[in-house]
Amino acid sequence: MNRIISIALTIVCIAGVPAKEIFAATKPAPKKKETRKMTYTDKVAELHTTAGEIDIRFFPDVAPNHVKNFIDLAQQGFYNGTKFHRVIPGFMIQGGDPNTKGSDVNSWGMGGSGKNVSAEFSTVSHKRGIVSMARANDPNSASSQFFIVVKDSLFLDRQYTVFGQVTKGMDVADKIVNAPHGANDRPNSPTTITKVVIRDAKADEKGPTPK
Predict the structure, then answer these.
(1) What is the DSSP-derived secondary structure letter of residue 81?
(2) CATH node for 43-202
(3) What is the pTM of this model?
(4) What's 123's DSSP letter?
């Protein structure tokens, strides 16, 4: 028995570790990965399109779930490659349907993310530049499609969820809405969203949510 212990101590010493420390040595606890929680206040979405850039600031104080939904989808690349499939001059442009990535135009306007967001109607009015969520007859059926109002449309108030406002690029929205279009308000050459970038708002993009 003494011979075995002696051999073990010799091996430890050869390895450069003092025998008295071999039993005290412990593995350091693994460092916990730091997780940063995404906040949705003072965020802006840059919609890079084939017609130009449209920037949107969000209103998480009145529509927190819709803002989160849009940002989450954007960061997943969900909107990349989708088209503004519906344009009505003097009213609005509509996009965000994943079906528009395909060639079956008859399915355009019918797609979504597979998840619905419950209505968050507010007192914010649908004035020019407001960004709101499209939906079906069910008030709680909003998913991924959204629209940008190019002219005051107050008849939509408290019926659709407003979640943001264009801070840059209304000239681009005007270009999109006035492009030649045919049946079902479908543009002949739809504008594509190439990518959406979510970033912190600049000083001139911040401010209270409009009433």
Answers:
(1) T
(2) 2.40.100.10
(3) 0.81
(4) S
